[in-house]
Design brief:
By secondary structure, this protein is mainly α. It is built from 11 helices and no strands. Helix 4 (about 55-75) packs antiparallel against helix 5, helix 6 (about 125-135) packs antiparallel against helix 7 (about 140-155) and helix 7 (about 140-155) packs across helix 10. The protein is globular.
Length: about 230
């Protein structure tokens, strides 16, 4: 698939992303081990409780949808920004009652299961954010820049929890704000995603994960954005 044929159009990109909201939410929560089907997510987003799921799983799923809607609104109103305050504002929605704290950077240490890589200490996080912004500004290609933000946020672990989802929110915020289609990570590719992320955490080399994430860009969406 080539992304060079995409014609940036913010209104169209947002319209398509809104249409895909149930799929975005469904795949995101399934990647976290919460097993909702797409029809169940659609039902839940319509305001109807679905049986067979815990209240915690329902809350996490609804938080995911609320964070997407907040992101859409911020882009439409010109309030989206690649900034620490905006990321914390979004985290307050996405991680409410799931993370140890929400709406602010962590104030303690964390670890990443499956790797001996150690994320930065809490006192270094604001500096890490600034370093990330500076490095991102030097990346010319918009998709590579956005993916770099996702991967950097996931590896730095700015928050106690919901770091990968926050990275994907900010990645897609950057893309949509530039009129480019969002990237969804299908739950069907969870094993491949997890294996590659563990290698990335260990090495810090973004190459493999960047290539993988680009393959997740929906070909139908690309075709529509190319018209």
């Amino acid at each position: 698939m080539t992304i060079s044929v995409i014609k940036p159009n913010r209104d169209k990109a947002l319209f398509l992303a809104k249409k895909q909201l149930p799929a975005f939410v469904c795949d995101a929560v399934n990647l976290e081990g919460i097993h909702y089907t797409l029809p169940e997510v659609q039902t839940l987003l319509d305001g109807i409780t679905v049986g067979g799921h815990t209240l915690s799983d329902e809350k996490i799923t609804l938080n995911q949808a609320a964070a997407w809607r907040f992101l859409f609104s911020a882009i439409e109103s010109g309030q989206f920004a690649l900034s620490q305050p905006f990321a914390c504002q979004l985290h307050a929605i996405a991680a409410k009652e799931e993370s140890l704290t929400w709406g602010r950077f962590r104030d303690g240490g964390v670890s990443i299961v499956g790797t001996d890589y150690q994320p930065p200490a809490a006192g270094e996080l604001s500096h890490c954010w600034q370093t990330m912004e500076t490095a991102a500004s030097a990346i010319a290609k918009p998709y590579e820049r956005a993916i770099f933000i996702f991967l950097s946020m996931a590896r730095t672990q700015f928050f106690y929890d919901v770091n990968k989802r926050m990275g994907r929110f900010m990645m897609n915020g950057l893309l949509l704000d530039q009129g480019l289609p969002a990237i969804n990570l299908p739950a069907a590719r969870q094993l491949e995603f997890n294996e590659k992320m563990l290698r990335f955490y260990q090495s810090g080399d973004v190459s493999e994960m960047t290539g993988f994430i680009l393959t997740c860009l929906d070909s139908t969406t690309v075709a529509i954005m190319s018209e």
